[in-house]
Amino acid sequence: MNARRRSPFVSVMAVLVYFFLYAPILVLMFYSFNASRTNILFEGFITQFGPLQMQGSTVIQSPCGPFHWFCELGKNHDVLNAAENTLTIAFTSTLVSTVIGTMAALALQRYNFRLKSFSQGALYLPIVIPEIVMGIGILVLFSQVFGFINAAFGLAGNARLSLGMGTVIVSHIAFSVPFVTLVVQARLHGFDKSFEEAAMDLGANELVTFWRITLPMLLPGILSGALLAFTLSLDDFVITFFTNGPGSTTLPIYVYGLLRRIITPQVNALSTVWILTVVAAVFLLQRLQQREA
C-alpha cells in the first residue's frame, strides 16, 4: 500500500512553527559569541587568542578566543553563587514535591474519603491562578507568620525568622506539588491492579508490593512529574522574586538585575549554559524512562 502523500502546506507550516519556537533561542546562543560589549548589534566573533585587547566596545582578542564571555562568566562569583542557590532550591523542592505529589496521587486515585472532591479541586488552584497573585499571597503569609512568631518568642537579630532560602524552597514545593500529583494520577489511570493482587496472593504484604510492583510501574510518571517540577523551579521568577531574601538570589533574579543595567553577551553565555544544562537533563531523564518502560 502506498504511503499517503504529505501536503506541502503542512510541511511549510511545521517548519514555520519550529522556526518561531527555536529561532529566538538560536539567536540568543549565537550572540553569546559577540565581540561587542553592548549586545545590541553583532560585530563579529572574537577569533584571536592572546592577551585581552579591546578597541572601543569591541573585543579584538582574548585568551579564550570566541569563548571570551563564557570565561568571564566562570570568573563571576555572583553568577556561581546564584547558580548554586538555583540548583539547591530546584533539587530540594523537586525531591520533596515528588514524594508529596506521588502520595497525594495515590490517595486521590485509590481511596474514598471526606473532602476528596474539595482536595481534587484545590490542586488546580496553584495551576490556574496567576503566579503574581500566588507570590503576593505567600509573601503576606510568611510576613504574618514570621511576625507573630518573632513577637511571641522575642526573637531578635540573627535568630529572627526572615525570608531566605527556606521560604523560596517552601514556595516552590507549594506550586510544584499539584503538577506532580496530576502527572502521577494520569499514570495511575491506566494502572493494572492485577499485578498487585497477584503479588499479594503470592504472600507479599502491602509494603513489599508497593516497592516491588507499584513503584516500578509508576516510575515513568513519577520521573515525568519530577522533571516538570525541576524545570518549573529552575525557571521561576515571579514567586521567587516575592519570597527570596539576602543570600538566596537565583539565576532568574540575577539575570533580571543585569537587564536593569548594561546588557552584555555574558547574559547570553549564561543563558546558553543554562539551556544546554536543561536539555541534557531532559535527555537523561528520557533515557531513564525508556529503560523503565
Explain this structure to me?
70% of the residues lie in helices and 3% in strands. By secondary structure, it is mainly alpha-helical. The chain has a domain at 77-261: MetI-like (MetI-like fold), CATH 1.10.3720. The radius of gyration is 25 Å and the shape is globular. It starts with 7 loop residues before the first helix and ends with a helix.
Order of helices and strands: HEEEHHHHHHHHHHH
Radius of gyration: 25 Å
Strand content is under 5%
Helix run count: 12
Q: Which structural class best describes the helix and strand composition?
A: mainly alpha
CATH architecture descriptor of one domain: Orthogonal Bundle
State the helical fraction.
55-70%
User: What overall form do the CA principal axes indicate?
Assistant: globular
